[in-house]
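Moderator note: this is an archived Q&A kept for reference. The question asked for a predicted structure of one protein chain; the sequence and the answer are reproduced below.
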Amino acid sequence: MKIKDGTAGAEVSIVTPTGFTSYGLTLPATAGSSGNVLTTNGSGVLTWTSPAASSVTGLAFPSVGSTIVGITNASSVTAGTPRNTAVGYQSMHALTTGSENTAVGNESLINLTTGSNNTAVGRGAGSSITTQNDNTSIGWYALRRGTDSSSLGMWSLTNNTTGDKNHAFGKSSLYTNTTGSRNVAMGYYSLFMNSTTSDNVAIGNQSLQYATANNNTAVGAGAGYSTSTGASNVYLGKDAGTNVTTGSNNIIIGAGINAPVAAASNQLNIGNTIYGNTSTGSVGIGTSAPAYKLDVNGIINSSSFIQSNGIVSAGNLPSSYAPTGATSIPGGNFADLQNSASGNSLPTIITFTGINSTLRSQSSYIGQSTIAGSGYALMATWALVR
């Protein structure tokens, strides 16, 4: 069949289609209303209908300034809650009125309700935070709960409950912490076993890994590694103080340096050279158990005068000791100046100036005199007593 409009060559032809099955359509009897669409009953009968309201699954914009992308996330949020960002399956799932939160990752901040200013990046990050504020959690199940705390690394601060102001950086750092507060852990497994104690600082992989007491400070990989219940210890250097277990108030400085006694307290060890007892104020050089304020194991050499307001006592001179030069002793108060070396002499010239003294050889006094100038060579066991 052809339809022509009267102009030569202008026509429309209707031919039998090829490859199509014949069917009939029945149009509705009216023109329909605005917004209507045609639908079919499956048998070719068309009718006008109004389309139902629809939505895109996983996208929601509950308030101005918020971005929610994911499935069943922020499903409880109150309209008007501002400036939240949730990306990932069930991220911020329970959020109601909290604001200024950011959650990126499956189930990140999943239980957050009214808390604000929290940031969680990683699957399960901050997953137990509900009403708490001001936390930063980056890593798989990092910092599941806390206040004013931050964590970076898988499992860091994972079990924290009510502890606040904690900061953990490194895989499993402060992993066991629950109620302890004001702790800082930087490094793989640092402060791993700390649970309820506070005010510890561990910097270095596995530093203070097993510590469960307060006020410990360790800087260096493995520093204070074995410390358990010991408190208020200071370790500085790689593997410093690794033998300390229950001792407290120890100061250990130097790579690989340990405390003289593993379970003792109040010990100082600097490089296995300078030791001390912090409870008595005693310092030892070359001896780990000083019995005096300054206890030296070995010969002391001085390029100048050594002044004392008390008794100066020395041990026996070694047989090989051969001092040279002269010693000048000016006026002052001398209670005792003696040498008890057996079979040795003092070849040194000693000058006494302005001292009203008594010289004695062994137990025999040698007169009473005022000594001025020089010229006395003391060649055996001797003493000067004022």
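Archived answer notes: The radius of gyration is 44 Å.
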